[in-house]
Task: inverse folding
């Protein structure tokens, strides 16, 4: 499982810089079909930029990458069709109902008209939101939104699922419930690449890559990484040994600024 | 972004995508009561307070009451607010709304943009029609053709302003409310369009003197419109330049022609700006969207 044709995800010396600032440098990795793969790293390490390059949201400045055999630059449309993505923050229209949000997805992904209704009901059932389908999303809890987004990302039957911090901001119950859903996908043979801060979630993945300063600093099965890192009892020890104890403070992103503005009740924010 | 990924698929026109994005805008509008309330209150304040209040001292403009004169202006104001609000919602939509989901989908950006633009123009049409409900009370009886003309103008004005707003929004990283857009964009476009005073000729005082008919005719030939009982003053040249450079001036002038039969600018210029400019703006907006959100 080391070449573009048989891997679900394949990158070679992938990199992205913004002017002089290098966000990601020389990332090479393969994710096999059906594999559960976690991308770990401190804030600002390059996880999200890597996911964005693999999902065609950001163009790499160096290197190549392919998803399900399609080149992320030259065959961006095929890549978009082949993947499902759940963003770190909800990407839902809060003024619309759950069903309306799913309808938009069905049209955007060209799901045939005759199948749309059935697929929408299927997605609502998958997310345990059958009774909430006609409620506006703004009345949903964080966990309900995340389940809805996950169900939506699966609606067009993608080959690979990208999850950017899927359980971030959920309470333990919500996180457990969502994690069970994700585990169920694994049993069905779905390929998943996720970024996470929760190391015991990563420990149950097939393989993990730890990324820091834009480069991969470790790659392998969790048990193997724990074994080969001196004095490490769990993945958290491995993580801290490799990435150091220094705090990673970041400037707020436009998104963070907008969110805080919305929380203060800013005008026209929904 | 490289030209390879911008190839054929992202430029495709997919009616179902246009339709769903259009419908989304309308659903959002219907569920935002504050916007409809804003349209009603704006109309009431401008027409009742300014139209009848100021109108009591400004007896007439070229034979029309002041409220009649500013009605197309109030329609324009509602169109400006509706279109820009729809466009600027993109900034919000990208950071914490549905837009990222749309960007990562295989849906062609051109169709997405067209849906958004048509949505903005349709909302502008709805909001712009609120002042028309007062037509009977203002003593204006437009013809059916005139009314259709007003709606066509409104729609195209909505397209133009939504497109303009999309170009602005696609360059905004963050945004703290609608206030800056309202003060920085809507008000100049509105006030520099002949919306509340005739393009040439502005009153210096209000009051006592009736302008003799002969003088009035002479002024009219010079393109200066007299306002009942006032001194007539020419706008400073630089404001005049801004007014003539403002496309809204022409669209508003055409709308006033359809409603009142009163026109201050050449018909050809009005028609050209109203109907030929928006398609160009639509193309520019589609390019701005593609560049900003698929890069």
Result:
């Amino acid at each position: 499982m080391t070449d573009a044709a048989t891997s679900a995800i394949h990158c070679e010396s992938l990199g992205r810089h913004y002017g002089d600032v290098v966000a990601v440098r020389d990332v090479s990795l393969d994710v096999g079909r059906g594999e559960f793969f976690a991308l770990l790293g401190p804030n600002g390490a390059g996880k999200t930029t890597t996911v964005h390059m693999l999902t065609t949201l950001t163009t790499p400045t160096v290197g190549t990458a392919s998803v399900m055999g399609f080149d992320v630059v030259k065959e961006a449309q095929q890549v978009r069709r082949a993947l499902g993505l759940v963003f770190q923050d909800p990407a839902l229209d809060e003024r619309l109902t759950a069903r309306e949000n799913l309808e938009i997805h069905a049209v955007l992904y060209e799901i045939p008209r005759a199948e749309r209704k059935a697929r929408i009901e299927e997605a609502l059932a998958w997310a345990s939101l059958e009774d909430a389908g006609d409620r506006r999303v703004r009345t949903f809890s964080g966990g309900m939104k995340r389940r809805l987004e996950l169900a939506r990302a699966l609606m067009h039957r993608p080959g690979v699922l990208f999850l950017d911090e899927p359980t971030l901001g959920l309470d333990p119950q919500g996180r457990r419930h969502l994690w069970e859903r994700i585990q169920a996908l694994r049993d069905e043979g779905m390929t998943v690449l996720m970024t996470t801060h929760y190391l015991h979630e990563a420990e149950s993945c097939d393989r993990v890559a730890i990324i820091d300063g834009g480069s991969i600093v470790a790659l392998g099965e969790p048990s193997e990484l724990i074994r080969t890192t001196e004095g490490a009892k769990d993945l958290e020890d491995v993580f801290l040994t490799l990435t150091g104890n220094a705090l990673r403070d970041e400037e707020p992103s436009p998104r963070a600024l907008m969110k805080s503005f919305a929380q203060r009740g800013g005008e026209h924010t929904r | 972004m490289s030209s390879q990924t911008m190839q054929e698929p992202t430029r495709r026109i997919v009616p179902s995508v246009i339709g769903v994005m259009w419908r989304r805008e309308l659903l959002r509008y219907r569920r935002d009561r504050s916007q409809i309330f804003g349209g009603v209150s704006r109309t009431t304040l401008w027409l009742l307070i300014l139209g009848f209040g100021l109108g009591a001292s400004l007896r007439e403009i070229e034979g029309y009451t002041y409220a009649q004169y500013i009605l197309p202006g109030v329609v324009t104001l509602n169109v400006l607010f509706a279109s820009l609000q729809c466009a600027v919602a993109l900034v919000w939509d990208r950071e914490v709304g549905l837009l990222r989901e749309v960007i990562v989908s295989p849906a062609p950006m051109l169709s997405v943009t067209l849906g958004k633009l048509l949505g903005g123009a349709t909302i502008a049409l709805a909001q712009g029609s609120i002042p028309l409900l007062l037509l009977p009370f203002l003593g204006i009886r437009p013809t059916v053709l005139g009314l259709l003309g007003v709606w066509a103008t409104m729609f195209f004005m909505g397209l133009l302003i939504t497109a303009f707003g999309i170009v602005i929004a696609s360059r905004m990283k963050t945004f703290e409310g609608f206030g800056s857009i309202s003060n920085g964009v809507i008000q100049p476009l509105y006030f520099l369009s002949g919306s509340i005073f005739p393009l040439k000729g502005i009153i210096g005082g209000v009051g006592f003197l009736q302008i003799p008919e002969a003088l009035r005719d002479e002024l009219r030939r010079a393109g200066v419109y007299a306002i009942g009982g006032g001194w007539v003053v020419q706008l400073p040249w630089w404001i005049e330049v801004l007014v003539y450079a403002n496309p809204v001036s022409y669209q508003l002038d055409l709308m006033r022609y359809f409603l009142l039969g009163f026109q201050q600018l050449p018909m050809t210029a009005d028609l050209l700006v109203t109907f030929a400019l928006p398609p160009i703006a639509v193309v520019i907006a589609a390019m701005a969207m593609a560049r900003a959100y698929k890069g």
Remarks:
- Chain A has a mean pLDDT of 88.
- The radius of gyration of chain A is 19 Å.
- Chain A touches chain B through 46 residues (CB under 8 Å).
- Residues 7-233+245-263 of chain A form a domain with the Rossmann fold fold (CATH 3.40.50.300).
